[in-house]
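Lab meeting notes turned into a lecture example. A postdoc, R.K., suggested we walk through two folding results consecutively so the class can see how the record format repeats. The first protein's sequence and structure tokens come next.
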Amino acid sequence: MIVYFSGTGNTRHCAMLLSRLLGDVPVELTRNMLENPEKCALPAPDKERRIIWMFPVYSWGIPVKVLRAMRHIHIPDVHSLTNWMVCTCGDDIGRTAHLWRRAMRRRHLRTAAAFSVQMPNTYVFMKGFDVDSPELEHKKIADAEDRLHKIAALIAAGRPTPDSIVPGRWAWVKTALIRPYFNAFCTGTGPFAATDACVGCGLCARRCPMQNITITAQHRPAWGNDCLLCTRCYHICPAHAVAYGRTTRGKGQFTKWLTPRK
């Protein structure tokens, strides 16, 4: 079973590929699972007796609500399963694997290896962060496919294998110091706004994974406080009209996986 959360589609793309390669059933973490994990349960485990946890790295760690779901969601026959981690990132992951293992240990769960997969950058809500060039985006996606085939082979073998991750420089500082500060002070929804380019289509509201966006009587989006800062609303907007204060001015969008389905 592959349990995943995806904001802009990078992790979902990787999860679907691993599902095809391994035959594991993909299970997306829904809003209810993320909001009320204590009241939710995963499906019964498949014959492979494993869970592959997949998620994007946010500020060198596991997205807060995804981590909470890991800690509290009911997992049938949980202690007979082996848990794996496959995270997606733009560059490096800090000590994300440590956070994942600590969450698993708290539930006395058995863990195998952790893997990281570089995918196109999507975080644009801070100064200095932007999407990758088209050339780099294409290269990352091609390299990720090759890497996922190798990861699938290691998981299928089921033998002990070392982690294969990219912690990056200053991993402890990024995860232990910068991440808590970022989560406490840099994840507010106050800076969100729609520019004059907004056409009032409502796509941002329909596709928000937390249903955190409503459309006002003036046909403009309004953001609530239940936000993962996944950037989906920014990237999916067909008019490029979603802004996060001044930090998104002149920045690009990543739309590779964000088809405008209803």
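The second example is placed directly after the first for contrast:
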Amino acid sequence: MKRIQEVCTVRVRMKRLISALVSLAIVIGLSWALLPVSRAAVIPYFISVNDNILPFNDSTMPLRINDVYFIPHNVLADVGVHYVAVVSAEQLHLYRGATRSVEFDITQGVTIDQDGTMRGWPAARMIGNRFYVPLREVANFFGLTYEILPIIQGITPHDTNVSIIRIQPDLLLNGPSFVGIHRDSLIDTYRRHFGIQPPPRPPDLPEPTLPDIVEIPPDFSDVIIYLSFFDLSAGGLADILDLFGSPPAVIGYRAVFFASAADIAENPGLIRRIFGSGHSLGIHLVDGTYEEYLETSALLLEAARMRSVLILAEPDNETAIDMAQEHGLVLWNTAQRFGEYDTGDRVTNAVSTDSGARQNLKFNASENTAEILPGVIAFLRTNNYTVRRITETVLPIRQGE
């Protein structure tokens, strides 16, 4: 009998405790219901669930009361938290699967889980037909994660801050990256919703005047040009030598002059001038025999006190080809003769369209060559061609190579 009385006494005490807790919860609920709107922070919030940003309006904007975040009851469906809302009874039932559920009673201000355990959570609120549940407690209860990220600060006259509550964030896209991607569109959405005019655009500045574009000439520095002259009695040799000796247009340019026996006999003074100006001297063969080479060499030695193993012959002169190979002479027998062109443009066009890495510009020393040569020299300098003179150690350019 005494044991039964003790059990009854414990039951009575438990009923009184539960009744007191319910009464206290009702008082707290009524107190919250009577809280002025000014107690709730005016910070507007966006909500993102699984990185899907919900439409921004009064029905999706959460509340923040006394540093407690409350979210609308229906925003968690995308993460598997479903609900049954009984508006008339002011009751909300949230559940995830068959094992986790919680029930909010707005009237009594209590929260009870699936085991009948009363949860000491901040009481849910109800505004109109919408329930607001505490974010932290609901997320922890249903195994969810979230973060709160600032978007903009102080864009209104009231220095309002705007943030986004990001529920179940993608770990591959961290917070700053997520905000950086969506920030501009979120700000525009916020301003449209509250009728906030965007900040005034700074006046358009006059476009800066760009300097005239200086065309950079082509660079053919990897193409070697050898200048050579033959037919030295054609009437233009003196003017050609004057051109090469007139700085600064042709500083550093030297050439090779191939003299025949007749050229040396007629112009021994110009032959000496060629050698004394730093140019190379070679022998122009007509027949291509070794005897002709020896005869012309003797005249060259007498006129300029020098010998040369450089020889020039017509491209199809087989005698000169065999003789040069037999006696170790350096034979240049290229076919192209630029002296045949009557204008500088034709010469420079032929040079620019030649794909060879080495070119022999071979001119006859005529008056026409002396006239067009300044333009050709200017073209070579402008386009950065590498201009060299032929020497005994330079590998010759021959016909067919």
